[in-house]
Design goal:
Layout: H1 8-18, H2 47-51, E1 86-88, H3 93-110, E2 126-134, E3 137-144, E4 150-154, E5 158-159, E6 162-170, E7 173-189, E8 192-203
Antiparallel strand pairs: 1-7, 2-3, 3-4, 5-6, 6-7, 7-8
């Protein structure tokens, strides 16, 4: 039997070379594998897509109710105001008498003189019965048509829409005397009232 001397380090190398490597260290500069990026570009649009939708696919807009894109312009018509003067009437007698009573109450509370009862009536409601003369001058007898009340008044006495301006009489014939009233009326134009004065003459017995 022939014994061959074998170096122990050589045997170790031989054994290591005969066994496949179970672990291989990664090199220091090695990086994990990255997925490949695609450089492919999207396919170009076809000629039909580039031209847009076809004419048969386009339908006009038909709103179900009110068109939200339509603006309704409302034009307010301004009625032309009448330039024709309009006569303004006076309150009824009941209203005027109620106003007079309120003035009497107010005058009594304040201690002032009460208003003349003739101020309840219009010039057109006063009849001349005659005139008289005394130490204070001339006066006139008036009767209020609505109530039949008789008043003894003098010049400058006021009624609802005027006053006694003067008494024109002949001392020899008082029956033919004439009483001149100033009568005020009102007209309205464009909501504005304008007073107008005129002289009205009445003689005894004149209606």
């Amino acid at each position: 039997m022939i014994l061959t001397s074998i170096n122990r380090p050589a045997v170790a190398l031989l054994l290591l070379g005969a066994v496949p490597a179970l672990w291989t260290p990664a090199s220091a500069g090695q990086q994990p594998a990255q997925p490949a990026q695609s450089n492919a570009h999207p396919a170009p649009e076809t000629a039909k897509q580039a031209l847009g939708p076809s004419s048969d696919s386009i339908h006009p807009y038909r709103p179900a109710g009110r068109d939200p894109f339509k603006i309704d312009v409302v034009v307010k018509s301004v009625a032309a105001k009448s330039k024709t003067p309009r006569a303004v009437g006076f309150p009824a007698l009941d209203v005027r008498r109620a106003e007079f009573r309120q003035k009497v109450i107010a005058a009594r509370k304040s201690g002032q003189a009460e208003p003349d009862p003739l101020t309840q009536y219009l010039v057109s409601e006063l009849d001349v019965l005659g005139v008289f003369s005394d130490e204070r001058g001339q006066g006139v007898f008036l009767r209020a048509q609505p109530t039949g009340t008789t008043f003894f008044v003098r010049q400058s006495t006021k009624c609802y829409n005027g006053q006694v301006v003067r008494v024109e009489s002949d001392s020899a014939d008082l029956a033919g005397s004439r009483v001149v009233f100033k009568e005020t009326s009102f007209t309205e134009v464009d909501g504005k009232q304008t007073p107008t004065d005129r002289l009205v003459s009445k003689t005894a017995g004149q209606k």
